[in-house]
Amino acid sequence: MKKLVSIFLVGLLMVNLLIPSMCVEAKASKKTARLNEKKITMVAGRKKTITLKNNKKLSKQKIRKVKWSSSNKKVATVKAYGKYRQKGKITAKKAGKATISLKYNGKVYKCKVVVKKKSAAGQNDKPATQIKTAKYTYKVYQLNDIYSAYYSPHKCWFGNEGVFYIKTDNPDPSTFAICEKNKDKVIFNSSFNDFVDVDYVAEDDWGAGGRRVSGGYLHLADSSDLLDYSAGNHTFEIRESEHSDIGFKYRQSVTAMEFKIYFRDQEEEFKGWMDDIIKTQTTNNMNVHEKMDTISTHLRFSSRYWPNKHLVSLEKPIFKTLRWESSIAPALLVEFGDRIGYPLTDMYSVYNRDTEDWVRYHAYAKGEYQGETYYYTCCPLSETGYIDMDFVEKIDFSKYN
Q: What is the pLDDT of residue 19?
């Protein structure tokens, strides 16, 4: 009898061990890295961004090895950007076909590009084809604060992406676009538009412009679109076109409405945030080591880890969300070190990734004071970044009238 009980318990233990591993494997399969576009059609002269979704975070050494390339640069070129160079901005050059490839973390991802010829002035752009007035109505609602671009002296990026809700009765998102006033530059057209606090109407409208939501479309401008704008007001317009077969055409469009966007001064606010922490958390009697120890402890326990989901409500610079992870934490402390006159070394890239030394020190900034070596970190625990979907409040677009 005892032998039978022992056999039963061993079998039960094996089942319990197997079930969690199967669950983990199932979850992992849902997070396979992939490009958000496999095939796109563009018009010569236009630009479009494609993004690697569910990409793994990389060390600075591996980021340098990330490579975007085009099989035919005469047809289309691509430029990498983003924190991990996981985004590629494609520029259509002339009619033809090309394949855009991304080598990321040892794997290759591809997107086929078909470029169509741009209409020549006097042929397809005759006045008779132009619309005189917009057919549809539009209202623009800014869902988050937008900041001017700022790269810190230590190349730490604290930017955010602009999110806008366009309420309109236009059924075709490819017939209108947000442009800078009087300029043929389409912005707020990022394909990396996948927020868990948004109920999208369709899952197959990637790359059409804005993604469909209740009553209109959600438009997103990624950080590269906003690099040219300084702090202050800038005027934009919604342009409407009759053409939807090969994409939006600026010269065959009319202005449906104008609106202003206020860009907040990111550099000024970021430095002001640091100075306020230094003022409230340290005293003049402290030496630089004591100040940094106090600052890093305060930051670590007042912040949370980078979220595991994308939310519109968290599209803010890190000094507003107080969320960051191990690649940003040491760079952030280096910035504080500059403010208090204490040079620090960002340890994230000092050692090869996943080595014993890297695992031990990558989240730290190193300082030397009076012959002693000190290590500081402000990286919060990774579990603090988990977002429980049961508590995510969806955006109610019906409140926008």
A: 35
